[in-house]
Amino acid sequence: MARAVSTPRKIVNTAAGWAIGLLIFFPILWIAVLSFKSEGDAILAPLDVLASAWTFESYGLVQSRSDYFGHFWNSVIISLGSTALGLLVAVPAAWAMAFVPGRRTKDVLLWMLSTKMLPPVGVLLPIYLICQQLGLLDTRVALVAVMMMVNLPIIVWMLYTYFREIPADILEAARMDGAGLREEVLFVLLPMAVPGIASTMLLNIILAWNEAFWTLNLTAADAAPLTAFIASYSSPEGLFYAKLSAASLMAIAPILIMGWFSQKQLVRGLTFGAVK
Amino acid sequence: MGHITLEQITKQFDDTMVIPPLDLTIEDGEFVVFVGPSGCGKSTLLRLIAGLEDVSGGMIRIDGEDVTAVPPARRGLAMVFQSYALYPHMSVRRNIAFPLRMAGLDAAEQNRRVEDAARVLNLTDYLDRRPGQLSGGQRQRVAIGRAIVREPAAFLFDEPLSNLDAALRVGMRLEISELHKRLKTTSIYVTHDQVEAMTMADKIVVLQGGRIEQVGSPIELYRHPRNRFVAGFIGSPRMNFIEGPAAAAHDAHAIGVRPEHVRISEDGGEWSGTVGVSEHLGSDTFLHVHGTGVADTLTVRASGEVAYDHGDPIRLTPRADRIHRFDAEGERIQ
Questions:
Q1: Which of A26, A270, B208, B324 has the lowest tally of Cβ within 10 angstroms?
Q2: Would the CB atoms of A174 and B77 count as touching at under 8 Å?
Q3: Is A180 part of the contact surface with chain B (CB cutoff 8 Å)?
Q4: pLDDT given for residue A63 in this prediction
């Protein structure tokens, strides 16, 4: 039954919605504003900042000081690579847990999720040492592998919840129709799970793109993604607000644009398959 | 060919024995119906034959070949599911062609067979639609089409009509029966509806608690139920059971008499009582008679329209040659 909402109530709700939205968005908006100011103007009081002159100088300085596109490619390779690799591992795992669950399947799922509750710094030393021994420090290979493992529990969980929505009857029908496991997964399960796989992919690309702990600790220059690019503008000698802002905006812009165009899939992804 | 034998097969889920050792032979070309109340193991039995569940013991043979460990894809059987289980992302054409594609047939042969099946099932105009755009009856026909194109050794039907409304169900029942008469492919059909079982089967297998209570033709089961369970399950309305002195008079612990085998007597009569509810079907009238002293309620099936009101006295006589006698264990006394 639809609930009747009076007009004044609608106005209040809309205003409140916009207010909360703006509040959440404000830091990003302010970064955008600061990025178009000179370094001197950026540290003024907020109102004076707005009154000062607009300039592109920070963007030019950032681009001349560091290689934005190098970092951008590293980010792309790390986030896409780790997501693709993660899906490759997670699809069979989620298939097994959703369609041939054992007595301990729920425990395995919870255990996997529990690894996300571990402070990453707790395993930094061993992972750093492993990368060092293998000669993988500051390589994209290491970051792809680490990012894949860090996000794997989430990929498996999301796929598991999507697969659970697919009626087992249909997979059994495929089996009766002569499909082997490979055909069953390739021709029936995956096409039916496309929306779920798409939102899982999107969410994991975003998570990997934004991840800073591992990228900052395992890279120096060659494999450094955009997170490291931003961090390089926050130095012990002081903050360069305008350049930091310009760098941040350049780093988040690609993912922001991607998120904007895939809002629907993302919402579905974030609700973990609870809403159809 | 589709000769299926089950030898001492068992199924256990954890510690629960769902199917105790069971033997059954299904002849080539037979239409066999597994019937029983819910939870009797009829669907499990079908899934064991399909290979969708593994047996815990025993052996399944299809045309003499041991298929106990063969995966469902290679048993050469086709199944129609209760939920239809169509592939929602494929057109009707691709749904029906799927088993042919899996069998590696070339495109021209696939097309020819799909068109043939579509013609038989009146689906020609719908071949390019998705399952979501079809009605329940059409979806069921697509599911049947997908089963017949491959010319399997046997069809397995898992309650295929229970999602359809009553009128459609009767129509589809006839279609499936006609299809079987034409194709003569071995069919195993699971249902909880004894009317479907009686009308479609060459052979009915009545199951309870995973055990086979009786196997026989519909008329055999109707005339000579082996025990009280089968007697009560087969036939509609249900058989009347009478215990006590009235049964003892027939040298039995209990006697059973079907509603259609109780006559209304003008005078005399073996039992007398008062009419409770009468259900008028037009062709028949079901009278529920109370206070006979032999059973709480006796159901009587009278042919045509019978004018009895609530509370009217009535005299009844069972047909002596149609009385079934049972011992204290519920087994039939010959």
A1: A26
A2: no
A3: yes
A4: 84
DSSP state of A3: P
Same domain for B8 and B94: yes
Q: Identify whether residues B225 and B299 lie together within a single domain.
A: no
Cα A73 to chain centroid distance, Å, stands at 16
B78 contacts on A by Cβ (under 8 Å): 176-177
Pick from B123, B136, B135, B137: which is nearest to B94 by CA?
A: B123
Scan for tokens 């050469």, then name that residue. Answer: B76
Checking if the pLDDT of A275 tops 60, the result is no
Query: Which of A101-105, A121-125, B247-251, B291-295 bottoms out in mean pLDDT, i.e. has the lowest?
Result: B291-295
Q: What is the mean pLDDT of residues A39-46?
A: 83
- One domain, residues B140 and B245: no
ipTM: 0.86
Q: Which residues of chain A make contact with B79, given a CB cutoff of 8 A?
A: 172-173, 176
Last-in-domain residue among B213, B231, B249: B231
| pLDDT one-digit tens code per residue, B138-197 | 999 999 999 999 889 999 999 999 888 888 889 889 999 999 999 999 999 999 999 999
Q: Which of B73, B83, B156 sits opposite A169 (nearest CB)?
A: B83
**Do B20 and B70 lie in a common domain?**
yes
The domain in which residue B257 lies consists of: 237-326
Into which CATH architecture does domain A66-270 fall?
Orthogonal Bundle (1.10)
Query: What's the whole-number mean pLDDT along residues B206-212?
Result: 94
Residues of chain A numbered 153-172 and touching chain B (CB < 8 Å)? 167, 169-170, 172
pLDDT above 90: residue A265: no
- Burial label for A125, CB within 10 Å (0-12, 13-18, 19+), is exposed
Burial of A73 (0-12, 13-18, 19+ CB in 10 A): middle
DSSP helix/strand/coil, B108: helix
Pick from B51, B98, B156: CB nearest A177: B98
Q: Which of A100, A172, A177 should one mutate to test binding to chain B, selecting the residue with the greatest count of B CBs within 10 A?
A: A177
Domain's final residue, options B193, B211, B231: B231
Please indicate whether, in this complex, the C-beta atoms of A175 and B103 are within 8 angstroms of each other.
no
Q: Is B146 on the interface with A (CB under 8 A)?
A: yes
- Domain total of chain B: 2
